[in-house]
Amino acid sequence: MVGKTISHYRIEQKLGQGGMGVVYRAVDTRLNRTVALKMLLPELAADASLRRRLATEARAAAALNHPVIATVHDFEEVDGCLFIVYEFVEGSTLREVMNKRRTDLAEWLSVCIKIADGLACAHEAGIVHRDLKPENVMLSGEGRVKILDFGLAKIHRPLESATAGAQAGTLASATAITGAVVGTLNYMSPEQLEAQSVDHRSDVFSFGIMLYELLAGRHPFLGRSPLSTIGNILKEEPPAPSLSSPQLPPELVRVIHKCLRKQRAERYQSTRDLLVDLENLRRNLSGGTAAAVVPPEEEFGLPRGLARGLFLLIQLGYLCIYGAALIHAESLEKGILSVLGAVAVPLVVIMAMCGIAVRLYLLAAVGLDHPAAGVRFRRLFPALLALDAVWAASPLLLFGKLGWPALGAVAALAYLPFCQRTLIQSAYQLTAAARTPPPR
Hints:
By secondary structure, the chain is α+β, with helices and mostly antiparallel strands. Helices cover about 50% and strands about 10% of the residues. The protein is built from 15 helices and 11 strands. Helix 10 (about 305-325) crosses helix 15.
């Protein structure tokens, strides 16, 4: 498609592709401006349901007039190719920004306020986004924020307001898929996952997940598999965001938890109310009435999956050491530990069993990716350091056979506790600040 001209739009570059559509940067040759064209993938262009979904997106977005919502310039069909013409927003998705750099609380809060403001406009016009996620929010270099992709939007009767009344006629012909589970699993509300009817409070839940992820640095419900993620969203309460970011003001933690209530009646009943709370919080922060924001420390730059894998591998290595000690405990009694007499074997057995219990606990916690595994390790670390220090000396028992390499083994084992701490910090994004327990 690059290089071709459709209608009066000359396609210059492919910007991205999703499950059903593709987005190109193009030039409007009539008005000499850069635009973004969103169209269905060629192999899906004839799918009637997807064509209706694209039409829904065009009509829903065109019905809204707000600086945070991408403007629709046109909606055309040329030779069977259906496409939406959007304003071109140069920048990065919120997901890309989250992955590239750390941003302080004030800046993230400003971004979230703009997103909430755009959502409030959509909700007052009777439009539920239903697919709010970091990939559908664009940030420009000038600090502008744009909400994209209303392809799964659901149209309700507009609320009784001046804004909604002015847009009611535009929305009358828009439709959306109903009676099915639609959206992105990790950002769905409980009612979406259970295929219930949804309203604007479903977007509030999705916004709460984004807010948590932005400020705490991890997803509140992410499991080892899609099924476990669904179970967490439906049944589990999220860990307190302060476990990962202790600098968060208590009022902001309260806002996050209110957005993430399982029962929609317990969430914010109006996105405007959510917006008011966020704006009040920003004013308090800028006025110095809230606790000072402590910028999070830089994280160790190891991929999370690799960090967890290496940590688990170390635990298995320790289990092998303990197993070998138990197998050869009697021979140790006759060797260098003979000075301890009859207590040598029981001492080795007790220390090995304590080590096995600790390693099995860590294997289960990190292997199952429990959200509080990092904090639990931090609390356990002093005792773990003492235990590992004793076992680090174990190669000295073989000094007569190994010679000087035994000292190298001692140094390597002495390093392992600190290596584990670094891996846990990388996997669970811990800072050096003290952690507080999650609210009951």
